[in-house]
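Issue 218. Parser rejects a valid record. Input:
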Amino acid sequence: MALRTIGLTTAVLLLAACGSDEKTYTVKDADTGETTTATVSEDGDQSRIVVQGEDGKTATVITGGGGEAPKDLPPYAPLYPGAKITHTMAGMSADGTGGMVGLETGDSADKVAAFYKEKFAASGLKETMDANMNGTRMLSIGEPGGKGGAAVVITPGDGGTTQVQITYGQNKG
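Output the parser choked on:
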């Protein structure tokens, strides 16, 4: 169901941009005959997509431009102080939660990287990456056994701004 869910979610996101309050889409797999249903609803600048397979399992994706951070943002990957939220996406299923938050700040990429390195170090989680590629910093941490973690990509932007992308996930169990 995972590949169908990703494909259906992508198609639904594109259709949702056409503007409506709530629509339901059903896709039938040509090979297996299984159906997957997605319900899209909009509230202001936020879209909610609930995908359900024949087995009854659901996955929910919430997208939006700016506003509030996802409620499940882990403490070891918080919003950068004073940064503007540019976009968000959160997902949840029976297996876990995860998401992505885009930020913009006037602080330097080095200052932002130092902030996240400090948060990551204090978390007790294992550092899995610290890379600097032509000024773009990539930092990541993970929990033992692959139960969850976070990655932060920090990119110096034009006009003295720095773009920050936080991606996180937490498996249940």
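Fixed in the parser; the record now loads. Residues 65-173 form a domain with the TATA-Binding Protein fold (CATH 3.30.310).
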